[in-house]
């Protein structure tokens, strides 16, 4: 029997009301709903919400790049107000450590630990730190980077993405596609991708066409080189699999997008600055300037999608599209509706990075424990049933070790009345080098930190950098521990300082027995600190 029109209208009204109600909910609530949707038995398989100690350490590492002090941990654990997690998130996002942390993250994302031949590292890091301290919209930051030419000394740091790749056109094309569009199209340089049907050779060269007229002036070897551009030059390509060797050509376009039409300038008006001996040419029409707009344009959904996916992976330890630079139909997102929602909301909120990270941090999905329900030993990682273990980056490890050992506090004591947060941070930053040498990824490759090496284990167990941090000095952890006599007080200070959690009953017993039997108490305290620093628990964000 057909449904009466009046009933259909009523049903439509109900569905419309439900849709509006869903959209009115905060993003973090919608995240949790979409993660749970379609997963049979979700509530019985998902991990409980993390303990306060677990959440505290996790969010500090994600937003501040370090761990909290023992006193900060004590204060958070005894706080009984229901909104304390949200207040903590807001405090960390408003703090100076957030900008430093995001500068470190995006340095690795954008430069993949390449060298500093043309733009000094300090200037580049300050450029990124300032951008995140000011919470510049992410699309605006990317446009600034992709339109930079390095000519203005004040704006030169933004050009590092180009300059310290020596503006090698194929390398820059590949990395723009990977970093900003989520497509590793390197294999499409010589032919359509053999394994990914949607990665076409014409799209590779459509992206290259934005860049093929540009070059380094006066040459690629000059440390003060800047970008210059010709007014002409097209890209041509031939598939190595085409026996007929038919030549293709293309105008600039985003992968899968429409070609950008170009109006030819009047003859004799091709340049703002005409090429000549020792003169940097500047064309009247710049394809490279069009690239910055095209990548971040509203009609290029891959940009918002890739950015949202990267920020999700930063927080959750795994992309909704995973790996984050292999977005194609053959590698679909684990939660398509969620990825669409994140991208849409990120764009609607004007690419506000803090806003998106805050919403993710407030979700139950982010706040899940890393320990699942009893008996569930192998949950599928793409379902986000438990928190993923994330290896600490080289920078996180250096800052966390400095905080855990009390070196940060010792620096404050040493500086005395002249101590400032910037001055203390400069001292900690100076210790990063050895950690980067051992824990950072290879230059030019994604820095996943997924592989633990023998060198890393030896560094933590016997390396002078770590051992030097443990040595007692005024304000350090071993100095504080040496002034305590009660084994329980020592255990509390030790575990809260290094692992951001109270000790278990067995751990308390072990520490008490070790101290009781130790002939040399200072050495025993040093070894206790070292043992926790070298543990797998310290090495991971969980």
Any key phrases for this structure?
two-stranded antiparallel ribbon, 52% helix
Low-confidence stretches: 10-21
Give me the Rg, rounded. Answer: 27 Å
Largest sheet: 2 strands, antiparallel
Write down how many β-strands occur, each being a DSSP E stretch of 2 or more residues.
8
| Beta-strand share of residues | under 5%
Q: Gap between N and C termini, in Å?
A: 56 Å
**Helix share, percent:** 40-55%
What general outline do the C-alpha atoms trace? Answer: globular
Helix/strand structural class: mainly alpha
Round the mean pLDDT to the nearest integer and report it.
92
- Number of helical segments? 27
Strands of the widest sheet, in order across it, are: 1-2
Structural description of this entry:
The chain has 542 residues and is mainly alpha-helical. Among the domains are: 167-296, no CATH class; 390-541, no CATH class. Helix content is 52%, strand content 4%. It has a two-stranded antiparallel ribbon with strand order 1-2. A hairpin with an 8-residue loop joins β5 (271-273) and β6 (282-283). The protein starts with a helix and ends with a strand.
Quickly describe the structure.
The protein is mainly alpha-helical and 542 residues long. The protein has helices at residues 5-24, 27-36, 42-45, 52-64, 70-78, 84-94, 96-111, 121-133, 138-147, 160-163, 169-181, 201-208, 287-296, 301-316, 336-348, 353-362, 394-404, 407-415, 421-429, 432-439, 454-462, 464-470, 477-482, 487-498, 505-517, 521-533, 536-539, and strands at 214-217, 226-229, 235-237, 248-250, 271-273, 282-283, 390-391, 540-541.
């Amino acid at each position: 029997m057909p449904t009466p029109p009046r009933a259909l209208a009523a049903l439509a009204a109900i569905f419309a009301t439900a849709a509006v109600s869903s959209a009115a909910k905060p993003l973090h609530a919608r995240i949790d709903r979409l993660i749970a949707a379609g997963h049979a038995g979700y509530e019985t398989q998902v991990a409980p919400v993390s303990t306060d100690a677990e959440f505290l350490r996790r969010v500090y590492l994600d937003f501040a790049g370090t761990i909290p002090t023992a006193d900060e941990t004590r204060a958070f654990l005894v706080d009984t107000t229901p909104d304390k997690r949200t207040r903590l998130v807001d405090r960390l996002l408003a703090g100076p450590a957030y900008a430093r942390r995001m500068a470190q993250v995006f340095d690795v994302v954008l430069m993949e630990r390449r060298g500093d031949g043309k733009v000094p590292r300090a200037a580049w890091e300050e450029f990124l730190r300032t951008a995140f301290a000011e919470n510049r919209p992410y699309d605006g930051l990317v446009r600034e980077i992709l339109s930079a030419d390095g000519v203005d000394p004040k704006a030169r740091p933004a050009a590092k993405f180009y300059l310290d790749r020596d503006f090698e056109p194929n390398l820059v094309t590949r990395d723009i596609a990977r970093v900003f569009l989520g497509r590793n199209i390197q294999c499409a340089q010589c032919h359509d991708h053999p394994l990914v049907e949607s990665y076409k050779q014409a799209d590779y060269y459509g992206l290259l066409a934005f860049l093929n007229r540009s070059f380094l002036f006066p040459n690629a070897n000059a440390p003060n080189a800047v970008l210059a551009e010709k007014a002409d030059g097209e890209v041509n390509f031939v598939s190595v699999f085409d026996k007929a060797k038919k030549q293709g050509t293309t105008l600039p376009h985003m992968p899968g997008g429409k070609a950008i039409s170009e109006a030819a300038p009047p003859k004799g008006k091709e340049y703002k600055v005409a090429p000549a001996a020792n003169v940097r040419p500047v064309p009247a029409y710049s394809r490279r300037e069009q690239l910055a707009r095209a990548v971040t344009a509203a009609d290029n959904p891959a940009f918002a999608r890739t950015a949202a996916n990267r920020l999700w992976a930063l927080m959750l330890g795994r992309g909704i599209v995973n790996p984050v630079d292999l977005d194609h139909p053959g590698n679909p997102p684990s939660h398509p509706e969620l990825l669409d929602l994140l991208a849409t909301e990120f764009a609607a909120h004007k690419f506000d990075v803090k806003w998106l990270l805050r919403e993710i941090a407030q979700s139950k999905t982010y706040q899940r424990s890393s320990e699942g329900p009893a008996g569930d030993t192998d949950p599928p990682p793409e379902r986000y049933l438990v928190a993923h273990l994330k290896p600490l980056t080289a920078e996180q490890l250096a800052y966390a070790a400095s905080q855990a050992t009390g070196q940060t506090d010792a620096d404050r004591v040493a500086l005395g009345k002249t101590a400032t947060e910037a001055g203390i941070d400069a001292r900690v930053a100076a210790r990063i080098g050895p950690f980067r040498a051992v824990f950072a990824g290879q230059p030019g490759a994604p820095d996943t930190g997924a592989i633990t090496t023998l060198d890393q284990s030896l560094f933590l167990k016997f390396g002078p950098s770590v051992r030097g941090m443990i040595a007692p000095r005024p304000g350090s952890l071993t100095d504080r521990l040496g002034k305590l006599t009660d084994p329980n007080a020592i255990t509390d200070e030790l575990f809260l300082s290094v692992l951001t959690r109270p000790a278990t009953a067995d751990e308390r017993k072990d520490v008490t027995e070790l101290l009781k039997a130790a002939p040399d108490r200072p050495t025993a305290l040093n070894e206790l600190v070292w043992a926790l620093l070298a543990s797998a628990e310290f090495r991971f964000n969980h």
